[in-house]
Amino acid sequence: MATVGRTQTTDIAVHWKEEEYIHPPAGFVGQANLVDPVADERFSEKHFPECFREYADMLSWDRYWHTTLDTSTPPFWKWFSGGTLNACYNCVDRHLDRHKNKAAFIFVPESETEPTYTLTYQELFTRVNEVAAVLRDFCGLHAGDRVTIHMPMILELPITMLACARLGIIHSVVFGGFSGEAAGLRAADSESRVMIYADGYYRNGKLVEHKASADLAVECAGHEGQKIEKVLVWRRHPGQELLTTPMVQGRDYYMDELLKGYKRAKVAPVSMDAEAPLFLMYTSGTTGKPKGCQHRTGGYLAYVTGTSKYYQDIHPEDVYWCMADIGWITGHSYIVYGPLALGATSIIYEGVPNYPDAGRPWRIAERFDVNIFHTSPTAIRMLRKAGPNEPVKYDYHFKHMTTVGEPIEPETWRWYYDVVGKREAVIVDTWWQTETGGFLCTTKPALDPMKAGSTGPAALGIYPVIYDEAGKELPPGLERAGNICIRNPWPGIMQTIWKDNDRFVRQYYQKYCKDPKSTDWRDWPYFAADGAVLPPDGYYRILGRVDDVINVAGHRLGTKEIESACLTVPHVAEAAVVPVVDEIKGRMPVIYVALKPGVSDGRQVTDQIVTTVETMIGKIARPKAVHVVPDLPKTRSGKIMRRILAAISNTMDTGDVTTLANPEIVEQIRQQVQGEGPVVMQEGPEDVKRFGEQE
Ligand code: WT7
Questions:
Q1: What is the whole-number distance in angstroms between the Cα of residue 354 and the centre of ligand 1?
Q2: How far apart are CA 319 and CA 311, in angstroms?
Q3: Tens-place pLDDT, residues 360-406
Q4: What is the number of alpha carbons within 13 Å of residue 459 lying toward its C-beta?
Q5: Residue with the nearest Cα to atom 20 of ligand 1?
């Protein structure tokens, strides 16, 4: 049914039938933030772009803006022009008057014997100031400089991000599970001269020594021509030596030691232009090189604050737990910036969800009386598999739950609703992307009924459209998949790809731009690279990526990045990476390689490939299988037919192959793969993830 051009993922998308509506529980509706039935009207096209004042007015501005949306240089939209503000001030300082003793974060270490730690807004303020002083006075960093942060889920991660934001330093957080090389490449691309690490963290009951990654990162950045002058290292246990990797004299510094010199330092928040970049978040694209999505201060903060309030339904008295990792966009928008701007109390959990057993998340929920819970389909599937009745054993009550990152099949959705939510919680299935800053499609939790397996209608002020390959609009009810686009700009959209405006335009706007000379936003639909169908009720169903990106456990891996890694293995002549359906993670990569002539030991090469992929990208990219085949199927012009390989791996019809240069190879590969069974990679216990998304 997927008719979208060269899609891979949508071709193997599961199509479930339309489900019945379920209405939000009355208990939820009675207390919700967004209950006004005319909200849709307020955010309708007639009121665009001024409707977004409603979000911007949730912030404290140093200078109010004069132009809500400036469209003079499409598609480089400017939001809230003329305004100035500081993101850290909005997330921390402004809560001190009324909430200084309120918990901003409750840190839950992975070990159940280590005490939890409650960080109040006052202490957050104190610590952020001291770190800001280190960045400014010890590192000599200023507004506009970039810093790469490669850290696990500990309190010092948001503290460090906020310290950057206080000074207008652009942070680039790299997910802790990525390899040192991956972090180094990103540090080089962003031209960071300071990197920030943690010495270690706990995962699956084991201490992971993370600082070793810093050494690789610095080396790798060096190869790319970027000198990392300083590496600041947070200690998981301040004052204690965890490391077997030595600190490099004159380059590496323990934060706890540096901070002794900055006790009670105060650093005034720097008033930033609304359009000043707040952070970079690297994500995989269609080419080998990850792209640095650059997010602005004013528009981004306004959008994540507004959507946190309306769709996450965060009130200051709630206890909110988003089980994502801060190293991904979900964590930036819906653990750090949105919730803190609202003065929320959030749980930060260090470890994997099912450590030491599948009851862990529900014990955490019970202990802290969590009432808003946010996670991914992968994590839900995994928790269901490991402990289908665990939630019942614990006395917690969610009013609200979120699912994000990948399509959720109705069966999994129902377990989430019935068992995890005990039929008391409303669910929002939020569709969005690293590029979009915040939610694009979701139900309004108190106003719209839920429909399992569908994300829902567009978020307020977002006007989607589905186009076919030729740019023809597919109306609702057609039952045909097309490319979902957003017709209008919104404050959360990224500004550009770091240092690459051309790629930004090419990637997101070129395909459906109606007139490159136009300064009318209506001529510049945003191409999301997802396939979607739209039934008559307007509830979008997202089918998955239409580009060379694989969504593994709710997170993005570029097939080209994995292929490039494979090609660095000496004996590999050619490599192709395709997605295969996985019961827990949704999709996983499968690697096909052809070896150079004369190489016979396929097994050894297979092991090398797996290790190389893990070192160059991270365990997140570990393939489900590696197939060493005699040749890859190719067109007469030499193009590798990944689609055919995907069909074989997913036991689907390969279609007509007679026009290939080497049609006979298809049957040979099929017999090898389906006959002998795949070479399944061993998965260690560390593979069981938080938020699903991790390595
Ligand atoms: C891709 C973006 C932003 C959240 C974390 C992922 C897929 C995301 C949903 C959903 C179906 C979804 C899309 C999208 N996706 N949310 N609710 N239903 N698919 O961010 O790593 O930038 O990945 O995740 O394919 O393009 P990301």
A1: 23
A2: 15
A3: 999 999 999 999 999 999 999 999 999 999 999 999 999 999 999 99
A4: 30
A5: 433
